Structure formats: C-alpha cells, structure tokens
Amino acid sequence: MRLWVLGSGSNGNSILLEAGDTRILIDAGFFPRTLAMRLRSCGAAPESVHALIVTHEHLDHVRGAVAAAARWGWEIHASTGTVRACRALAHAHQFHAGETVSVGNIKVQTIRIAHDAAEPVAIVACDERTGVRAAVVHDLGSPNGALRRALAGVDVLVLESNHDEDMLRMGPYPPFLRARIAGALGHLENRVAGQLARGAAHSGLCELVLAHLSEQNNTPAAAHRAMTTALRGTRFAGRLTLASQREPCGPFGPRAGVIRARQLQFAL
C-alpha cells in the first residue's frame, strides 16, 4: 500500500491510497481541476480512482466530491449522518460509523470520532493482499478509546496536528472561534496529537505524517517539536513528515521510496 497527501489544511484535504490496482481517495476538499492536477503529479489519472470515502461534510473535505465523482465515475461512500447533513451526497453509498467498507483490494474500517460534524469518522485502510494498514485521522477534537485501539499496529499514520495552544490563545481569531477549535469537538492541539501518536508508536510504524496544520495558529517547527518530544523514548524509528496545504507529498508506505523533495521532512 502507498499513500499520498494531495493537500491538507483549512483550504482543502484529500488523500490518495493505492493497493495493487485499487485506488481510493479519502476526502475531496479541492475543486476537480486541482484534484486532477495533484493526482496526475502523483502518477494517478483521475479516472483510475475507484471510490471516494468522505470522512465528514465540512467544505474543506467535500468541496469537489460530487463534481469529481460525476466527471470520473467514482463511487462515493459516506456515513448516514454525513449524507443527511450534505444533501449533495444523497446518492452516496451509506455506512454507519464503525462499519467496514470494501473497495477492490482495500478494506476500510471506519471509527466514530469527536468533531463538530454529523457523523464524522477516522479510517484505517488495510491492503488485503499484504496486510499493510494506513490510518487517516483528519479532524479530531479529542481522542477516544475506540480510536486508540484502531491505531494500534498501523504501518502509516496521517494525524491532525492543528494548532499550538499558546498561538491559538494569543492569535487573531475571535473568542467563539478559538473556543470551537480548542473544544472537545474541535481540532487537535500539537501536544495532544503527540500523546495520541505516542500511544500508537511501535517499531513497525514506518511513516507518521502530520496534517491539517493551521497557518494562523501553528508553525511546522512547533508541530515538529511537540511530536518529537512526545515520541522520545518510544520504539518509533520511521519518518516524520509535515504535509503541505499547497502541494502533494508522498508516497508513504513500507519501502515507498524517496519522498518528493519539496515536502517538509524531518529526521528524529
């Protein structure tokens, strides 16, 4: 299995997963033209994607979903709550959080998470041929036990590290928005992301990708510092990478090869 982050942040999120001849997208938060450009830069034609899994209905995750699926013939899968909250997804294949979706060689476990959406999920995708597992935790207010258990033993982890607590408190956002972001249904603070990653760290975790970094309330250096501090003393010996909002990065996965030169990569 290989994974590319096509872009991650408040302006759009999308991840490409590939296992054998099966390709799926996790979220489509960019307009179709941008999705096409970024997919092609990763060596994937848009029409080669088999299905789109939507984690929740917020615009930065569904902006291009319906138009892209119609243009290139993708199946869309979304939770029942997500479909109810986003009428444009009315024709999607529906699942309940906690259920598993199978597309070709990829089996996708969905996990209900805490976020201010109707029925948001994290996903753990498994390549049924090799057993390699990749987890995507995009928007998360606070971790729960089901998520911690699901992340145990994954080979690749894409994890939100949205904001620095002090930068958010002192930043330009109005009080109501700061409260929403920092709340239990908001977004993951760097140190909490570190705690969650520490619990999932093991010798087989080969890739850890930090996603959804705020451009107002975080910096790559702050996110990296918090994560490396949290991982100190664990068995993690893989690559730590910070995903970009503006360009794709990858591939990630066991023996995935050289990461594209412009992405932000740090050695532990």
Number of helices: 9
- Which sequence of SSEs, written as H and E, runs from N to C? EEEHEHHEHEEEEEHEHHHEHEEE
* Strand tally: 15
Q: How far apart are the termini? A: 24 Å
Bin the helical content. 25-40%
**Radius of gyration, in angstroms, nearest whole number:** 17 Å
Shape: globular
Strand content: 25-35%
- Please list the strands of the largest sheet in the order they lie side by side: 7-8-9-10-11-12-13-15
Structural class: alpha/beta
Topology overview:
Blueprint lengths: L1 E6 L6 E6 L2 E5 L5 H10 L9 E4 L4 H4 L2 H8 L2 E5 H6 L7 E3 L4 E4 L2 E7 L8 E7 L5 E5 L7 H7 L4 E5 L4 H6 L4 H8 L7 H11 L6 E5 L8 H12 L7 E4 L6 E4 L11 E3 L2
Parallel strand pairs: 3-4, 4-5, 5-6, 10-11, 11-12, 12-13
Antiparallel strand pairs: 1-2, 1-14, 2-3, 7-8, 8-9, 9-10, 13-15
Describe the structure.
It is a single chain. With 268 residues, this protein is an alpha/beta fold. It contains 9 helices and 15 strands. It has helices spanning 32-41, 59-62, 65-72, 80-85, 145-151, 165-170, 175-182, 190-200, 220-231; strands spanning 2-7, 14-19, 22-26, 51-54, 75-79, 93-95, 100-103, 106-112, 121-127, 133-137, 156-160, 207-211, 239-242, 249-252, 264-266. Strand 7 (100-103) and strand 8 form a beta hairpin. It is globular and about 45 Å long.
